[in-house]
Amino acid sequence: MSKASKGTIHITDTALASLIGLTAHEIPGVVGMAPVNLKEGITKALGRSQVKDGVTLHRGNKGQHGEKGRARKEKPAADAPYWAEVNVIVAYGVSIPTVAQNIEDRVKHIVRTHAGIELQQVGVNVVGVSRE
After folding, report:
1. Contact indicator for 55, 76 with CB cutoff of 8 Å
2. Alpha-carbon gap, residue 113 to 19, rounded angstroms
3. Most buried among 25, 26, 97, 122, by the most CB within 10 A?
4. pLDDT tens digit string along 15-69?
């Protein structure tokens, strides 16, 4: 009896960003995700936001990126680590450091267990506070 070979599984950056966005949005105290850039802001204003909005995914060591987290032109190695930035709006009255820590812990756990990918770092940017 021959042993069946396993195929290759590829998780796209878009799918990974969506997983991160969905996970962050489930954290108590998170009201919503904030747009990362102008394009996301316009899309959200038009009512077509996506679950990956508010998530910036990077590949490679954090020190390999230029100012403001922009990647340099070199393509990272296939085994380069991932790190993510999550932009959120939190509810008024919550402990922002606690919510941010919960986002970081939960996102790392979910990405590791659901996608098999170890995130090197999860940065949480609280860009707004809302009464909603």
Report:
1. no
2. 11
3. 122
4. 999 999 999 999 999 998 886 654 444 444 444 445 567 899 988 765 544 444 4
